[in-house]
Design goal:
18% strand, globular, alpha+beta, 26% helix, 8 strands, 196 residues, Dihydrodipicolinate Reductase, domain 2, two-stranded antiparallel sheet
């Protein structure tokens, strides 16, 4: 689910850095979601992303019942940190901002209102396709790292010839990977699975 859900948290990290990672390595696997209905995806990923300036983004996500659950971002910088949503503080712990957003309008609705308004006016104000593609690539690179157990560099991931897409899009098209006679799909094995 690193590509399907956790990508949004990775996108926030990229936005905060105003950059995209140049390499990633990580661990992941399937411990709980192992049935036929889950296909071949891992149920947990932990990835360390590195940016060109040497800074790091640490990413953890999982799908496991009855475990501690947190979906958020925190940031640590030279001149301060944002340890939780709405809080910015100095290295000594002095709080510069403590915003209680409970009375704020729904940010998803605000985003849609602004986008729809721009479309209705014929304005081209929200050109986020490149950022979306690069955040998607960030998630793909993380998945490649956890599935393979290898250090994956951005350019190598971007130029990989691995395709998970069908040869054609149609209801009767054969998927690129099929289940075995028991209905189970092949699962990535770190150290064995090739992604480049």
């Amino acid at each position: 689910h690193i590509n399907e859900q956790h990508i949004h948290n990775l996108d926030v990290g990229n936005w905060a850095k105003q950059a995209y990672p140049v390499k990633a390595h990580g661990m992941g696997g399937r411990l709980v979601r192992t049935g036929k209905e889950y296909g071949e995806i891992f149920d947990h990923h932990t990835v360390e992303y590195e940016f060109a300036d040497g800074s790091r983004m640490f990413s953890q996500c999982r799908h496991m019942k009855d475990t501690y659950y947190q979906v958020t971002e925190s940031f640590q910088g030279t001149n301060g940190s944002a340890p939780e949503p709405g809080v910015i503080q100095t290295p000594s712990g002095y709080v510069l901002l403590d915003h209680d957003g409970r009375k704020d309008p729904n940010p998803y609705q605000v985003e849609h209102d602004l986008l729809f308004d721009a479309i209705a006016k014929g304005e081209y104000r929200y050109a986020d396709a490149e950022n979306a593609a690069k955040s998607t690539m960030t998630a793909i690179m993380g998945r490649m790292a956890t599935y393979s157990g290898q250090l994956i560099e951005w350019d190598a991931a971007l130029n990989s010839e691995l395709s998970l897409m069908p040869e054609r899009y149609a209801w009767d098209a054969e998927p690129p990977v099929l289940p075995d006679e028991n209905g189970l799909y092949p699962v990535a094995v770190p150290g064995e699975t090739k992604v480049l």
